[in-house]
Amino acid sequence: MCFxxxxxGVHLSNNKMDTTTTVKKGNSLIPLVTMTxxxxxxxxxxxxxxxxxxxxxxxxxxxxxxxxxxxFAFFGAYFVGSLIYFLISYYKGDPINKxxxxxxxxxxxLLSALxxxxxxxxxxxxIYGVFLAALFVLGLGFTILQITANAYVTLLxxxxxxxxxxxxxxxxxxxGTTIAPVLGGxxxxxxxxxxxxxxADSTRIPYLIFAGILVVLALIISxxxxxxxxxxxxxxxxxxxxxxxxxRMGVLGIxxxxxxxxxxxxxxxxxxxxxxxxxxxxxxxxxxxxxYWGGAMIGRFLGAISLSSLAQAKKVIYMVVTAALVYxxxxxxxxxxxxxxxxxxxxxxxxIVAFVVGKSAPARTLVLFAGVNIALLLLAVVSKGEMALFPxxxxxxxxxxMFSNIYTLAISGLGKYVSQGSSLLIMAILGGALLPLxxxxxxxxxxxxxxxxxxxxxxxxxxxxxxxxxRKVQVTDQKVNVNH
Length: 484
Fold this sequence. Notes:
- This protein is mainly α and 484 residues long.
- The protein has two domains: 13-234, MFS general substrate transporter like domains (Growth Hormone, Chain: A, Up-down Bundle); 236-479, Growth Hormone, Chain: A (Up-down Bundle).
- It contains 20 helices and two strands.
- It has a two-stranded antiparallel sheet.
- The chain is globular.
- The termini are close together.
- This is FHS family L-fucose permease-like MFS transporter.
- Pfam families: MFS_1.
């Protein structure tokens, strides 16, 4: 799960800004490579939650609602962390501007490593609550990265190419979410099984490995020369951002989007295991889960091309070539045959058509993509076998640009309230904690297939938000890009 965070103190927009940033630039190649690897690990570990849920559900004999506490703990930390940051910024000033972005990133990486280390006692004690505590700490670390890491990327070179660098790191974040189900699933479901059985210990070594990688990464970041900057900010008192209807609606839009995306990914493996769907064991279904997240990666590459200044004919050509290359990359990762994944080509073509019809307009594209996802979910709910599974796997493609488009539309026209509005939007990631929990309750009461009505309702709200913005919101800068 990759969510495009706000950038504390830096706004990639043509709106009037209340922050002045001075940057000292140097050779940015090595720092950019380092940050790109950080984004990859960030996406990889986040997506491991989708592997943890069926694993812990089987070991602790949990129902769907109880297993969704994994996402509740992880994404609840985003809300708690961003709320604390918002309050500190409001009363004491932006803490990142005081300690520096580099120290902020290192703190986020080390806190994430601590969260990974806590999986060791959780596995040793075999207590579900300790697992949830570890996930909460891990989520707090990623919250700090949400606030800090993206701004650093914008500083690693000329301002005019900042969007390009953000798209690059975002793509590698998505690459991490794509291979996590395959590699992470192999670690938990195959390599570290004991006597062929699922145990709590099978998470112990993988997460210690992740912790070690993060600690090494923090050491590298501490030694790499990154740009220094200073800023003078003036914060607005009160909650003036809430007077803008697009911001109020956008907060709920982010809540719905994150909740829908996380809920679908969390239940996919269990959904595929149903006898009347595909009856696929967990060790194999992880490969199809990689298609869901791989679709988001493909869609983000296509979105970057669609929002460029190229002529329409060139956009189409570049999108087709890019989609083909990235699809081949995803296909080379997943352990399934071309025949088993060829259906995905249909969704890629539909995705390109939707981008063309959307004409690079954020609101129009958002409406189209939300409408397609509603149709795909309804088809999955009323179908059986492959016709139920394939539509859900295609949803990742149409999730790809939703966060960035909702964010862009929500903050458009906020002027001096952009920073405040951004903080409120990131708090709305709470949807990833609450809505999957509700979907799990629906799955327990009415069956996992019917639980997908909930994300369909979420996308319906996003469609309504898009329609409102088509009529009421004038986007002043369509090249606002923030990474998740």
